[in-house]
Amino acid sequence: MGTGRVLDFRNYFQINEDETSEKLNPAENAVNQIVDNFFMGYTLAIGVIEDYKGVKSDFDKIMNAEGKDKGKAMMDIMISLAKASSKYGNEVVTGLTDMGQDINDAFNLAIETDEGKKSLDKIDKAIYTKVSDYQQKLIDQYKNSPKLETAKIGKENSSYQTEEQGHLFEKNLFIDERDSLISQINPKKAQVDDMTKHAAPEFKSRYQEISDKYKKDLDNLHNDEFWSGMKRSGRKEELEKIAGNINQNVEDYNNISSEIVKKLGIDSQVTKKLQDFSVTLLKVSDLIEKAKDAEAAKTEEAKKKKDVNKDKEENTFIEIKSGTVDKENLQKGNKNSDKIKAAQEVMNTMLPQDDQIVADGQYGKKTEKAIRTISTIFKPVLPDLFQNIDGKSLTPEFRKFLDTMSKPETKDKLKTIFPSAQK
User: Fold this and answer.
1) What is the pLDDT of residue 381?
2) pTM reported for the whole predicted model
3) What's the rounded Cα separation, in Å, for the pair 291 and 399?
4) SS percent in the chain: helix, strand, coil, step 5
5) Dmax over Cα atoms in the chain, in whole Å?
6) For residue 47, which phi and psi values (nearest 5 degrees)?
7) Which residues contact 132 (CB under 8 A, 6 or more apart)?
8) Which one-letter DSSP state was computed for residue 385?
9) In the chain, domain spans
10) Which 3 state secondary structure label does DSSP give 331?
11) CA 306, CA 314: separation in Å to the nearest integer?
12) DSSP for 200-213?
């Protein structure tokens, strides 16, 4: 090989008769496969770490490391990612750490062979080129497949202003869950696209098939109409299906890599380390998926409890009409007397002293006026709650508001705001 010529690892399993290229030796083939395995583990990890920002820094560490230290650089990155993945459990942390160790061990075994020692400088340059190329592929992939515009979609699909006012989004299009899947697919697709471009014919179509599957799922994840046309249960099923597709694609990619290792006749000790890596990768992928399923189930259960509590709330805070509308509520000891009295007592804590009323459980014109006065006071800060208040009804929303205002911590604040109110 001429001075200054850099090996192209991407063509490592092709038979190339071009005189400007040369066949890679076993150590060079081994290191190329080691780097590909590292990328598999790396894309798995960064795909599940929320808003990971360290890609450029990670790749710079590998490219700038001395040739003999590039295995350790990859290992250190995997260990760092393992620590950042602690939310998925200790087994995931241990698994990612072990994968990093396998990469370093395999790299050191490869460069310690006779061929490795002779080719270390070429291996160093080839890894630099390979990492740099993948970094650009990753940048392009994220540009082509950005995260969803959560704020915009949330606003467009909201028929109310805030959940705190007792309302929920009209449709849940699972924006966060879709973004999470997009983040997992992007780095994996960038890697498989690079392999598709440079693979030998016998592997090219299989890599392309995986890439096409990723593209189909990404297209669906970005298509709001696709999700709007489904029922909630259908959206959940589609999310689960795409997550399953990702795992299957990782397994298929892994199987191709295993076939390539056998075809190249890589050193048996290096092969064993790469096999260990692959087994752990699939195990970690499964553990992460199970942890995410458990978290999703926990979130769903919390939502169900919240919905139950909301239903109870709605039953508790029924509407009570003024006695000028429903004469029964003007009578002493009426069926709503206790509820009316409780509302009157809370209103008195918010009213100026001259506007306070007798808390007798009877709902007449003075109580109507008190409601209107409170509306005037609070409308600047709660305009939606106090729209068109005429005092003729203790609405569920207004009664819930009074319940909040009756809390001790709220009362203390009110005393500061309204020093003339009843203590």
Assistant:
1) 82
2) 0.62
3) 41
4) 70, 0, 25
5) 105
6) -70, -20
7) 59, 63
8) T
9) 9-311, 320-417
10) coil
11) 12
12) -HHHHHHHHHHHHH
pLDDT at 8 (0 to 100): 44
Count other Cβ atoms within 10 Å, centred on residue 301. 10
pLDDT of 260: 84
Quote the CA–CA distance of 366 and 176 in Å, as a whole number.
49
Q: Closest by alpha carbon to 111, among 70, 155, 151?
A: 70
CB burial of residue 266 (10 Å; 0-12, 13-18, 19+):
buried
CA angle 388, 162, 350 (to 5 degrees): 55
**What is the structure's pLDDT at 258?**
85
Give kind and range of the element (H or E) at residue 321: strand 320-321
For residues 1 and 20, what is the distance between their CA atoms, to the nearest angstrom?
9
Residues of the chain with pLDDT under 50: 1-21, 150-170, 420-423
Q: Which residue has the tokens 């693979």?
A: 199
Collapsed DSSP state (helix, strand, coil) of residue 399: helix
pLDDT at 315: 60
With beta carbons less than 8 A apart as the criterion, state whether 364 and 324 touch.
yes
